[in-house]
Design goal:
Layout (H helix, E strand, L loop, with lengths): L2 H9 L2 H13 L4 H8 L5 H8 L2 H22 L10 H14 L5 H14 L2 H13 L9 H14 L1
Helix pairs in contact: 5-6, 5-9, 6-9, 7-9
């Protein structure tokens, strides 16, 4: 930790330290990392660097979830119906565009394998436990969305 970071943490009083803890927790930083910052075992900048990419992953996940939900809303809820048959093509085309990969059978197979893993109840349980350990509410699970998309991909062939 730099002398400046250490001096700043030492100079701030209890109310300011509490506000720092609240702010770090609101940013999704776990209790262990907060403790390391407060006890000067790690700099605030180092902890921030470590957690800086997490929102990007969350944003990508939310965009994919939104695309599936919009497709379901526009084309029907049963993934095996003719009305929903175009959804997998539209969604994989969008995924190909966002990820920079060609829209082909290999991409659809790759997406299908990841969706099968993501829809596993153990993954949702892990996410729930991780949130509990970090003192956060459990995030809404993606299993229903992933399940629909998986069924739609399979139905589309």
């Amino acid at each position: 930790m730099t002398g400046t970071d250490s001096e700043e943490l030492t100079a701030i009083g209890a109310p300011a330290r509490l506000q720092l803890v609240r702010t770090l927790r609101e940013l999704g930083i776990g209790l262990e990392a907060v403790r390391r910052v407060l006890e000067r075992e790690a700099s605030l900048a180092a902890v921030a660097r470590t957690h800086a990419d997490a929102p990007d992953l969350r944003i990508r996940t939310l965009r994919q979830r939104r695309a599936v939900l919009r497709a379901v809303a526009e084309r029907g809820t049963d993934p095996g119906t003719p009305a929903a048959a175009t959804a997998p093509a539209a969604l994989t085309a969008r995924y190909a565009e966002v990820s920079g990969r060609p829209d082909e059978a290999a991409l659809r197979g790759w997406i299908l394998r990841r969706l099968e893993v993501a829809a596993d109840p153990r993954v949702e349980r892990y996410r729930s436990l991780l949130a509990r350990i970090n003192g956060r509410p459990a995030p809404p699970g993606p299993a229903p969305v992933f399940g629909w998309f998986t069924a739609a991909l399979r139905a589309a062939g």
